Each structure stands twice: as structure tokens, then as C-alpha cells.
């Protein structure tokens, strides 16, 4: 069960790192990494298609992370064994000693 959890965690980490890279590379209002690395020259080579790709990649990676998290919860969230119940202590009382019965003489 732990290998499945480890696999999901690795996939979530990889998708998260890719998502951070794609979000930082986007150029919403003239900033971002694409503006730092020659954003003015990128305007001549079809920035619109690049922005569409970046937006689709962002949504895809975000939804992939959510799906992986839900799958990891569903597949690894169920306990494999039922926890042992705490046994209730059995009352062990000593038997009550009967007091000697006084016999009254019959009249």
C-alpha cells in the first residue's frame, strides 16, 4: 500500500513543479519570465498560440494534481486492518458469603 502512496506523491510533486514553471513562464501583462527572456521579439512569432498552450497546460496540470490527490486519498485512505477493540474488563467479584441463617424454634 505504501508503494502506491509513494508513486502518487512523486507524480503530484512532478506535476506541481511543472505547474509552477508554466505559471512563471506566462506573460499576463508584460511581465513574467517570457518578458525577461526577450518578450518583445516573441511578439513577432505568435505569442497568442503560446498563451493558449500555457493556459491549457495550466488547467491540465492543475486538474491532474487534484485528480491525483483524490485518487491517493481513495486508494490509500482505507485502513487495511481493523483496529483491535479494547476488551471490556470482566467484573470479577467474589461471591457473597451467605450469613448463617438463624433458625428460630417453631412454636
UniProtKB/TrEMBL annotation:
Keywords: Cell membrane, Membrane, Protein transport, Translocation, Transmembrane, Transmembrane helix, Transport. Residues 86-107 are annotated as: Disordered. GO terms for biological process: intracellular protein transmembrane transport; protein secretion; protein transport by the Sec complex. Its main location: membrane. GO terms for cellular component: plasma membrane. InterPro entries: SecG (IPR004692). Coiled coil: none annotated. One of its GO terms (molecular function) is protein-transporting ATPase activity. It is found in: Cell membrane. It is a multi-pass membrane protein. The chain crosses the membrane at residues 7-25, 57-75. Belongs to the SecG family. Involved in protein export. Participates in an early event of protein translocation. This is Protein-export membrane protein SecG. It comes from Epilithonimonas hungarica. The lineage of its organism: Bacteria, Pseudomonadati, Bacteroidota, Flavobacteriia, Flavobacteriales.
